Amino acid sequence: MDEGLKDNILNALEMVIDPELGIDIVNLGLVYKVDVDDEGLCTVEMTLTSMGCPLGPQIINQIKMVLAELPEIQDTEVNIVWNPPWDKEMMSRYAKIALGIG
């Protein structure tokens, strides 16, 4: 996958906001990996802020919606993983400032 497409995917994913924290999933550090195969299937490997997060299905639907807008993407598969576990250190500087975390 070329870097331009990866950037487009990550930019699109910045439109997906974690409803609890009000910050997008990229700046929160929830997206671990994105890949696109030759048929246009985009695989997103990500985690959630907590295992019991009831908003997982809502976030997955939003991911599929924003990526469907990219012409290179034919379908999207979202894999939720718990390893490595998410913690606040994975957030971007922007997310830490927005949430008032050192």
Automatic annotation (TrEMBL):
Give the matching Pfam families: FeS_assembly_P
| InterPro entries found in the cross-reference section | Fe-S_Maturation_MIP18, FSCA_dom_sf, MIP18-like
- Per the record, the domain of life is Bacteria
- Keyword Methyltransferase in record: yes
- Ranges for domain MIP18 family-like come to 6-80
Which is a GO BP term held by this UniProt record? Answer: methylation
State the UniProt keywords alphabetically.
Methyltransferase, Transferase
Output one GO MF annotation.
Answer: methyltransferase activity
Which PANTHER family does the protein's record reference?
FE-S PROTEIN MATURATION AUXILIARY FACTOR YITW
State what protein this is by name: DNA methyltransferase
Q: Which organism is it from?
A: Staphylococcus kloosii
